[in-house]
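Q: What does the assembled structure look like for these inputs?
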Amino acid sequence: MTAILQTVFDALSLGSLYALGALGIALIFGVMRLVNFAHGDVIAFSIFALLWPSTDVVAAVVAGNLPWFLLIPFVLAMGAGLSVLAEIVVFRRFRNASPATMMIASFALGFVIRYFLLMLFSSRPKSISLLPALSQPVEVLGARIPLLQLITILTTIAILFGLTAFLKRSRFGLEMRAAAENFTMARVLGVRANRVIMGAFALSGALAAAIALILGSQTGTADIQMGTNVMLMAFIATVIGGLGSLPGAVIAGFLLGAASVAMQVSLSIDARPFRDAFVYGAVILVLIFRPQGLLAGRGTKERV
Amino acid sequence: MNRLSADRVTVAFDGLTALSEVDLEVTPGRITGLIGPNGAGKTTLVNVLTGFQKPTGGAVTLNGTNLSALEPHEVRRQGVARTFQGGRLFRDLPVIDNLEVTGVGLGKSRAAAIAEAEEMLAWVGIAPLADRIAGTLPYTDERRVAIGRALMGRPGFVLLDEPAAGMSAQEADELAHLVRRIAGEMGCGVLLIEHNVGLVLELCDHIVVLDSGAVIEAGDPAAIRGSEKVRHAYMGTAADTDLPVLEVME
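A:
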């Protein structure tokens, strides 16, 4: 029983990461039809922001030593800031470009961010001590799980509810939902296009930073590659969920997390290293039977 | 005097003339009809009047101010609203949000936009549909939402692009009643673009007939009914959907 519970928590916390990542991608896809491959590098950037201004091998100065109630907003602001900057400097120029062109631009931007980090911090992962109190185990219904795992799951749920309420109830949310469905029409009706797009980038960047915080605390390292795997799974989740569908992205994120953990525990020891291959295989199966994704997104519909 | 007018509006591109020196005037409280065979340039003219397309010649003026250089949302803020063929609602959003986002886009506070949206839904007769997802509505209700959306902010002028397309005779009657109220109760200047010539003849105070991008006739319904030119224009394209139109005109 406790073993099952432990597995469920593992699945939920991994799914949380994928869901947060998928949400960040789907938000921007919704308003711009941009598949932002630089998202993973925003994750890496956010965690390395803790080390500034030091580029030494031993790390975590300045921001890294802030108390948690300052540290968390700082990292979220770094992610949001970089994302908004990317919009202003890069993506704004591609507003009317084809989705393929924007996607290539996002690849390029991702490389720029990655090599910028590489230049400053080298490719060797750095050990950081981020919120060490979170690694203590807690007992939930008899299962001993790391406090961080519990916090990850609860935070993700809080973010999902908060974001839903924000999109449903705020003026910005209303404008964003309209813009996500039909950007041209929203603009015609006077919706403030620049603010909506910048807001979407800020939210997406903050979500990337939240992932960075979780990964950083989980692994105790800052690694230039740290966003890559989550980003890949998150991207797959947005596709399975139906590109542009926010609920679809979240559901698919949790499904992927569950599938990964289920395979981790059910595959034989020899097959475990190939866990991801099995997960991707399952993804291919889903897409063969439902190419439009689980919840058909708006991106697949005709635009005005 | 208040009026929305097109003065010698010309739209030409790639050697093709979509509109050629078209004059048209819409005045408050009156319903002006715009008819013509398929491809006559009706929607192009609406696009020019609402800032969606820039005229290559001539000008669009509102109460003497030139609108030709403005963007669609700026024209909308000046009080010239439109509907689109097929409605083009935000189909994933609830009905009320479709109107509310328009109010917000016009610069209202959220609370004011909600209040006006509710009032407007009641005015067009679909208050109970406020929380329905727009994409799930039947055709005729969808049209009413589109009209309600266009009326947000009480524009001085509203341009209805084929609002009766695909409607039954009874539904078209109900629509006619609504259009009369828009001009009468709200005092809007209405431009009605319609394929259903019978409806236009019945509703409009003044009718402009376009053919191949030029005005071939303008006048009151009686004058249009008796016009040889109009009859000829429709006969010339009898191969399209306009045969029933001829019957209406007989």
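Chain B has a mean pLDDT of 90.
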